[in-house]
């Protein structure tokens, strides 16, 4: 629960509409055709009051405010010290409750290791806010060399995939490890292992055995491929319509578009929300989701990071096995889909990266990317010891 917000439902992702097919693709999807007319390409100007009311009443602004902790003060201070004390008490209570509900994965490491014994761990990692710190400019969200080295070691021992909201190419550029599998655009662009997943059966957007720009071979699955021209058009429109809003940054992730407002004055958040609402009005096959100080526009298909985890597990031949323990580490709302898949199937552990209490489907928590690095290092060390023990036992048996 976000204690600095009145938002009653902290899970902000918009639910997609129903009618999904076996493949998880909405049955009303048709090949892309441009809408009747493009949006105004002129610089952003304030829209008619009705539209603004729509944005305000829909709770967007509340959601935008609660999408990331404020940088400076958690509470208003000043003359009302009793109120501040009460808020501090409330915050402490929430932290204690959260610690009970979602204990630290570091403090619970023995418990996790005990459960993982004799199991094959499959590791899924978000990128921003998980492997790299959240920074003002998303282009500068670099992971440290130490983190890269740890992730490389993780991949030596466990099948490992990065599932990011960024484009697959961009996240590969940032991580730079060929040992991993990559899923970009919230799992809508997967270059997975060569094993086939039944979720891709007969899907027109599934390509067996392809080689990407990095020379890596794998099977490509892009369930929203027909949306690429539409997303490109939306990207250009949003760039044009937000260029008058200082600090706004629009990114094209190939299958979705992000509008960052981290560096935008709060008084201009409403125009940002309006620009996105205009897009949704014009393109009914797109939907909006939230991240940390970012609004995202993505295809209305029943596909998310949770589906991507299921897809990768099946491609790896690791689904529906009692001897497999998937672990997913992420910090954002889009990661909740993956946490839910693991929790509901009782299949593995979701680990939320957050320095504050949040409603989550994750089992454990870690405070920040530094703690993620410690946890991953501990897992590698534990695995080495376990493997060493197995080798020793086998030698004793042979002797
Ligand atoms: Mg993230």
UniProtKB/TrEMBL annotation:
GO terms for biological process: trehalose biosynthetic process. The keyword Transcription regulation does not apply. Pathway: Glycan biosynthesis; trehalose biosynthesis. It catalyses: alpha,alpha-trehalose 6-phosphate + H2O = alpha,alpha-trehalose + phosphate. Its cofactor is a divalent metal cation. This is Trehalose 6-phosphate phosphatase. Pfam families: Trehalose_PPase (PF02358). Transmembrane segments: none annotated. Belongs to the trehalose phosphatase family. It comes from Populus tomentosa. Keywords: Hydrolase. Removes the phosphate from trehalose 6-phosphate to produce free trehalose. Trehalose accumulation in plant may improve abiotic stress tolerance.
């Amino acid at each position: 629960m976000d204690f600095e917000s009145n938002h009653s439902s902290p899970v902000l992702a918009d639910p997609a509409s129903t009618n999904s097919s076996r493949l998880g693709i909405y049955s009303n999807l048709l090949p892309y055709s441009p809408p009747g007319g493009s949006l105004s390409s002129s610089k952003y100007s304030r829209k008619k009051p009705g539209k603004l009311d729509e944005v305000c009443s829909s709770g967007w602004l509340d959601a935008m405010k609660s999408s990331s902790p404020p940088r400076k003060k958690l509470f208003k201070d000043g003359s009302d010290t009793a109120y501040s004390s009460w808020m501090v008490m409330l915050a402490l209570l929430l932290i204690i409750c959260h610690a009970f509900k979602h204990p630290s994965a570091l403090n619970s490491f023995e418990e996790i290791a005990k459960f993982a014994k004799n199991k094959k761990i499959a590791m899924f990692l978000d990128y921003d806010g998980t492997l790299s710190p959240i920074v003002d400019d998303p282009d500068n969200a670099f992971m440290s060399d130490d983190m890269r080295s740890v992730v490389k070691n993780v991949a030596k021992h466990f099948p490992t995939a990065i599932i990011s909201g960024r484009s697959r190419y961009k996240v590969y550029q940032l991580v730079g490890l060929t040992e991993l599998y990559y899923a970009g655009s919230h799992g809508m662009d997967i270059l997975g292992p060569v094993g086939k997943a039944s979720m891709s059966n007969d899907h027109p957007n599934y390509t067996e055995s392809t080689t990407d720009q990095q020379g890596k071979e794998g099977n490509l699955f892009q369930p929203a491929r027909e949306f690429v021209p539409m997303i490109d058009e939306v990207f250009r429109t949003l760039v044009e319509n937000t260029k008058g809003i200082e600090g706004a940054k629009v990114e094209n992730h190939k299958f979705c578009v992000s509008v960052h407002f981290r560096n935008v004055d709060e008084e201009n958040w409403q125009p940002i929300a309006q620009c996105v609402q205009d897009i949704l009005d014009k393109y009914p096959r797109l939907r909006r989701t939230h991240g940390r100080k970012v609004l995202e526009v993505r295809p209305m298909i029943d596909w998310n990071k949770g589906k991507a985890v299921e897809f990768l597990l099946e491609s790896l031949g690791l689904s529906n096995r009692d001897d497999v323990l998937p672990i997913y580490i992420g910090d954002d709302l889009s990661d909740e889909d993956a946490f839910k898949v693991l929790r509901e199937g009782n299949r593995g552990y979701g680990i939320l990266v957050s320095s504050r209490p949040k409603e989550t489907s994750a089992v454990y928590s870690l405070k920040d990317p530094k703690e993620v690095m410690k946890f991953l290092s501990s897992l590698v060390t534990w695995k080495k010891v376990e493997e060493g023990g197995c080798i020793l036992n086998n030698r004793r048996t042979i002797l």
